[in-house]
Design a protein that fits this description.
This protein is α+β, with helices and mostly antiparallel strands and 454 residues long. It is built from 14 helices and 22 strands. α10 runs parallel beside α11 (240-249).
């Protein structure tokens, strides 16, 4: 691998005696891992079909290394079903370090493609909220797709400049994740473009932008809450020095211990006047991941003193035609009570986690897009049957190594119980995958065309 001379000189300064170790690992296999989506599956279950869910990585209890001979995991039926997420192992350290609790309100400010948002959703359970923001609009679609694939019901996807979004959420979140755009030095082995685009000027430009994003994020953190900063680069200007400058301007924050002592301590010589800078964590390739930096900052004070924005609970218009049609559909096709937080937008029906008084930013997706009312009938969307939070009346469960699952993922009709009539959920090994429409022992395929295996 050919790397810029200036970069290598800087790495030798950073690593000192460990520099030779770094160079040696550049020639080894790239680290790959998968993280279990605990909303839909567990490691024991997945290990029956993909026998490497045994020993977790050092960074996350639900992250597992992928053996080098395993290929094509993105096409596996259980990946389609959202049972796991393919994620570089050191990237999984961020949400673990955040110590997110069930019911927390979490902001992922630079969220695409969704690795950290989907991991946070596993932590907050059914009662919390995750706001996943992505400013670059071209990256929003894969973010929405991953959140939907993982079956998450309490996520709101937004696309806004960090400063605009954050101005609406004063002291609102328990945990705020800033996985900042960076020079990507830790991704050199995975992405050749990162090497081609590297320069010291870009490093300094990234550091300036990262500090601006952190400054925007600061006001959104509740007193007693945590701001988690991460990058996938080694540059001290983007890591320790960004934290040092942020703390100079925000004395209300302090660096926290990270319980899981993955990787190595932050390097004190790059921020010698910053208290506890060594409590930040660095991951180099010889630590078992491609590269990451993580800092956890606590906002001083008591959560009860925060001036939280009051959200609104969505109250459905029980008299509108769209709600009546949806509720009849839901009663016919699911065993659950009709969801309370139903939101009607024109003829579209959403099951949302929360509504806000202020919407000066663009909401791309809120909760589950259930479907659309068309000519006095309800047409469901993939997300309604892909979530694990509802119990469908009719289910076809297909083995993940069968010819039937291949046919379904190709968009073909498959056989089903002859007594089934109407919309029917499709699962693979018990994990929600999608749906179809049953009639006379045949299930007409409704798996989205954009997700099908060609």
């Amino acid at each position: 691998m050919s790397l810029p001379k200036q970069f290598l000189e800087r790495m030798e300064s950073i690593l000192e005696n460990d520099f030779s170790k770094y160079l040696a690992f550049l020639e080894s296999e790239i680290f790959r891992a998968v993280r279990v989506n605990t909303l839909k599956a567990d490691a024991d279950k997945l290990n029956e079909f993909l026998p490497f869910f045994k020993e977790p990585t050092a960074f996350c209890k639900t992250s597992y290394y992928i053996p080098s001979d395993i290929k094509g995991l993105g096409n596996h039926p259980l990946h389609h079903a959202g049972a796991f997420y393919i994620q570089e192992p050191s990237a999984a350290s961020v949400v673990e370090a955040a110590e997110i609790n069930e019911g927390d309100y979490v902001l992922d400010l630079c969220a695409a493609p969704g690795g950290k948002s989907t991991a946070a959703a596993c932590k907050i359970g059914n009662s919390g909220l995750i706001v996943s923001n992505e400013y670059v609009y071209s990256r929003v679609k894969p973010l929405v797709s991953n959140i939907e694939r993982m079956g998450i019901k309490n996520a709101i996807v937004t696309s806004a400049r960090p400063d605009v979004l954050c101005s609406n959420f004063k002291e609102f979140f328990d945990k705020v994740i800033v996985d900042a755009p960076c020079s990507g030095e830790g991704m050199f082995r995975k992405e050749s473009a990162a090497i081609e685009n590297w320069s010291l000027e870009n490093v300094l430009a990234c550091a300036k932008r990262q500090l601006e994003i952190l400054n925007s994020a600061a006001d959104t953190v509740k007193k007693g809450g945590k701001l988690i900063y991460s990058t996938c680069t080694y540059a001290p200007e983007e890591n320790e020095q960004v934290i040092a400058k942020f703390l100079e301007e925000h004395s209300e924050f302090e660096i926290c211990d990270i319980a899981n002592k993955f990787g190595q301590n932050g390097i004190e010589k790059f921020a010698p006047n910053t208290k506890n800078i060594a409590k930040t964590r660095r991951i180099f390739n010889f630590n078992g991941g491609e590269g990451h930096f993580v800092a956890v900052l606590r906002k001083c004070g008591n959560e009860m003193d925060s001036e939280m924005l009051s959200p609104l609970t969505a109250i459905p218009d029980l008299k509108c035609k769209q709600y009546k049609i949806f509720s009849e559909f839901f009663k016919e096709n699911f065993k659950d009570n009709i969801p309370q937080n139903v939101y009607i937008k024109g003829d579209e029906v959403y099951i949302i986690p929360i509504a806000f008084k202020s919407t000066s930013f663009q909401i791309i997706r809120s909760g589950i897009f259930a479907g659309t009312v068309k000519k006095d009938r309800f047409v469901p969307e993939h997300a309604l049957f892909n979530t694990p939070h509802f119990n469908p009346e009719r289910v076809v469960d297909i083995k993940c190594d069968s010819d039937e699952i291949k046919k379904y993922l190709h968009g073909e009709e498959i056989a089903c119980d002859a007594s089934f009539k109407g919309y029917t959920a499709v699962k693979t090994e018990g994990v929600p995958l999608g749906f179809g429409k049953a009639n006379n022992g045949v299930l007409k395929n409704h798996y989205p065309k954009g997700l099908r295996l060609l």
